[in-house]
Each structure stands twice: as structure tokens, then as C-alpha cells.
Request: fold
Amino acid sequence: MKKRKKTKRLSAVTRGLLIILMVPITMTLFVLTSVYWGDLQRIPIVHTLTETLQEAPKKMMDIDIPEEYIPIYQEAAKEYEIPWTLLAAHHRIETKFSTMDPLLSPVGAEGHMQFMPCTFVGWQHPSCSGQGKGNISEEDKTNPAIIAKYGGYGIDANQDGKADPYQLDDAVFSAANYLASNGAATGDLEKAIYMYNRSDEYVEDILYYYNKYEEEKGSKGQAASSEQ
Reply:
């Protein structure tokens, strides 16, 4: 058996002194970086690295748009004059293209595009308040006449007599209706997205995928394009 070479170890006092010396250096670097971060970001390589690090988690979780869903997005987008890629982005964020199981959030958002019952049926419903879960019967939730009565956004897209957030066509058309009514039809995408879920982070996430799909599809998202 070979003998191990003895290595000199720093004494506890020496290690302590090194730590003490490193603290002000580290704090100085932190302060300088914080103060001049805006200037540092203007340097091309720093700006590129920052963007790359910010987008890395999203890129790791990217999922291709299911081809069979695109005609539904495009039809709904044409009807409500909004970008179909915006609908694809919402579908991606809300339920990962309907792969979430179940299609029901902890706070009560339902279906493929995650509508709160009161938003789908209408906030004028007498049980609607707070976050919008309400106390609406399952029959009334999908009744187009009830939805029209209470000013909801639910749409019976497939004309089967029900506006069902768990039916993909109905859910996508309802989302298109909501987004269009809140600014997307006039080009105010950020407002429409924010109204869908009032979070700045949510807006950023939707816009990330919207811009990604715009770049990939190259159609500027308009459903009236020759693709249809």
C-alpha cells in the first residue's frame, strides 16, 4: 500500500483571516455590480448571456404546438380577429396543450384554457364574487342561454347546444372571445393578456411563447392569412 503524502493544512486562524479579507471584497463586487448592472447589460456579451439565462428554463420545457390544434386556433382567431399564435401561447401556458391532468386548477379554473366559472358564465351571476369560482350548477355552466343572460364569455363553437370549457373548440373560441373583448382585437395584446391573468410574470410568459410561435410560423399570427 502506498503511503499518502501529507498535505499542509491552513490553520484555523489563517482560514479566519482569509474569510475576513474576502467579505469586503465580495461586498464591494456586489455593490459595484448592482450599481453598474444597467451599464454592464449594454455590453453585447453580457446582454446576450443575461437573456440566455432568463430564457433557459422556458427553452428546457418547450413543447411543440400539436399540429391538429392549429386549425382550431386559426378558425377562432379569424372569427375574433386576433393572432392565432396568441391562442397557442395561452394554451401552452394554461394546460401545456391540454396535457395537464386534471384540467382543473386548485383555485377552480376549468378546462383546456382555464376559465374561472364566473368569467365563463358571467360575473352578473348572483353567486359570483371574489376570485370567481361562484356556485353555479354544472348544467348552467354550459348553458349558452344562461351565459348570454349573465354576460359570460363561454362559446358553443361546435354548435352542440353546450358551451363547455372541457371541450377544446368551445374553450379556444371562448378564450378568443375573452382576449378580443379585452384589447387583443385592436392590437393591445399586453392588456388582453393581463386581463386573462393579472400577473406581470404571466404577461411575460405568454409574450415569450407568442413571439416564439410568431417567429417559427412567420405569419404574424393572423388567421386571415393564406394558410387558412
